[in-house]
Amino acid sequence: VPTKYFEKTTHMVKSASGHALDIKYKLSNTRICQNKVCIPHFFFLVKNQLYPPIILGTPFINAIYPFTNINAKGFSATYKDRDISYTFITEPVSRDINALIEMKQKQVNYLQLEIFSMNIFDTLKATKVQEKIKLISEQMAIDICADHPSAFWNRKKHIVTLPYEDDFSEEDIPTKSRPCQMNSELVEFCKKEIDSLLQKGLIKPSKSPWSCTAFYVNNAAEKERGVPRLVINYKPLNKYLKWIRYPIPNKRDLLSRLYDANIFSKFDLKSGYWQIQIFKEHSYKTAFNVPFGQYEWNVMPFGLKNAPSEFQKIMNDIFNPYLDFIIVYIDDILVYSKTLEMHIKHLDIFKKIVIQNGLVISKPKMSLFQTEVRFLGHLICQGKITPIQRSIEFASKFPDIITDRTQLQRFLGSLNYISPFYKNLSRDLAPLYDRLKKEHKKPWTDSLTNLVKTIKERVKSLPCLTLANPAWPKIVETDASNMGYGGILKQINPHDKHEYLIRFHSGKWSDAQRKYATVAHEMLTIVKCVLKFQDDLYNQKFLIKTDAQSVKYMFDKDFKHDASKLMFARWQAQLAPFDFEILYKKGSDNSLPDFLSREYLQNE
């Protein structure tokens, strides 16, 4: 066929066996003729030659449908009152009916998910729904929002105490701190802020024997806000206050609850700490000084060592009965639901709780009925999670050459947050961490500059991961090399059997661990990865895939009476609480964990 008849195409075509074909051109306006019957048809041109040179597929069969007979030798049909027949060159390859059913089921499940997602978006855009949302938003603004954190103390008050350590006597109060010097412009700004706090009843003049220094900071966050922030150095007081050991929630544990949520509403407590009162007899301990006077707090100030724990405890006491649709992280609150109807009910319950407990919500930060939400530094949307851009831009602001030790520490610290999304972070950073060692005196090299550039580029394109669904089977895939280890946690959608990435983990061996035998490396890799992923693996059976055949035997072997193998016995004990099965997987099929465990070698 002359090439002038070739037409470019972007169609994707698969063979009957399911393999993708290399297609760039097609032929239109062709005809297939037999027994004086010509049927219009078109062909795709396959780059790699096939046998036979021409294949008639489903479009041709549809053109002559219904054919009268088909068997292993061929098929015949009546087309425009003429009989035509076609003979198969080779006997057709039948596809497994179960495979076909499974493929169709995947398509149906995918379409159901797409339809469900579209239904949510379309429903929220409907005029009646928008009117309903507007009414709910307006009523919430009236019932639970205000400009002052003390606006609803008439409903309920929350009070905390500030007990000293048992061995502290007030006779030992440190010498008063002197006021921090401020220029005239800052003094005027400070006077206005102090007057505002006095008018709101948040502070009062003080003659306390305590007096900590207040000063202003104007870093990047404050510049973005447009005004400097008043900070009080409570270090002298914190030294003698008794610790309140109440845990702050793990952010990942909180986010894991959102795996099947589709609609979100986000709230921020108005000046959260200031909604909590200080026990009247203890407020003198919070005294602070400025160039023109001394004051003490009626509410819990920022800077007290127990402030986060005290605040989180109060929030948990209020909202813990509603964990299945409310998440609270200090003063950030998220209401989440699977459907619109459920979300309306959940918001009604949330509003009643807030009113009963005298809490104040910030109206400007209230965001209702969202299908995508930024929460705890992540972007959440229908079971998928990515870091928000603002949270990862910080790393890109560092220079490519980082010779200052403190600056290097800050750069490395900025990357810890994105480790679950970065598939080889610990090994990529190993050469940079080596520079923090006291004995390290080697000069900065071009390879380190290139490494920093590479890391900064990768941070800009982190993958989208899925939140672990407790009902979905889990798989841990691991691999070890002489330099380090790598692993991934995946889950299987039981409906379409598709595997979804949940988390990455990788690391570098210590000098002692590098000397371990290969089987020890493989065992320790499994231990490290399972323990890293343990929050998503407890109380369910999961599969471990590894390319080391001997590992299964080593985990089953009894090492109790073998003194030389106590290390293996210890690893067995560490995994004893978990229910898992080990499956051997060929190295060629274990590419991602293998990549995680070996990529560090490229940076050496």
Describe the structure.
It is a single chain. The strands form 8 sheets. The chain has a 5-stranded mixed beta sheet. Strands 26-25-24-27-28 form a 5-stranded mixed beta sheet, sandwiched between helices. A hairpin with a 2-residue loop joins strand 4 and strand 5. The protein has 604 residues and is an alpha+beta fold. Helix 15 packs parallel to helix 17. The relative contact order is 0.08. Helices cover 33% and strands 23% of the residues. The protein is extended. The longest helix has 29 residues. The protein folds into 5 domains: 85 residues, no CATH class; 29 residues; 248 residues, Roll (HIV Type 1 Reverse Transcriptase, Chain A, domain 1); 74 residues, no CATH class; 136 residues, Ribonuclease H-like superfamily/Ribonuclease H (Nucleotidyltransferase, domain 5, 2-Layer Sandwich), CATH 3.30.420.
List strands and helices in order, with pairings:
Layout: E1 7-8, E2 13-14, E3 20-21, E4 23-34, E5 37-46, H1 58-64, E6 69-70, E7 74-79, E8 82-87, H2 97-125, H3 127-144, E9 159-160, H4 184-199, E10 203-205, E11 212-217, H5 220-225, E12 229-232, H6 235-238, H7 251-255, E13 263-268, E14 277-278, E15 288-290, E16 293-297, H8 307-319, E17 326-329, E18 332-337, H9 340-356, E19 367-370, E20 373-375, E21 378-381, E22 384-387, H10 389-396, H11 405-415, H12 425-434, H13 446-459, E23 465-466, E24 474-480, E25 484-492, E26 499-508, H14 511-514, H15 518-532, E27 541-546, H16 550-556, H17 566-574, E28 579-584, H18 591-598
Parallel strand pairs: 9-14, 11-15, 24-27, 27-28
Antiparallel strand pairs: 1-4, 2-3, 4-5, 6-7, 7-8, 10-16, 11-12, 13-18, 13-19, 15-16, 17-18, 20-21, 21-22, 22-23, 24-25, 25-26
Helix pairs in contact: 11-12, 15-17
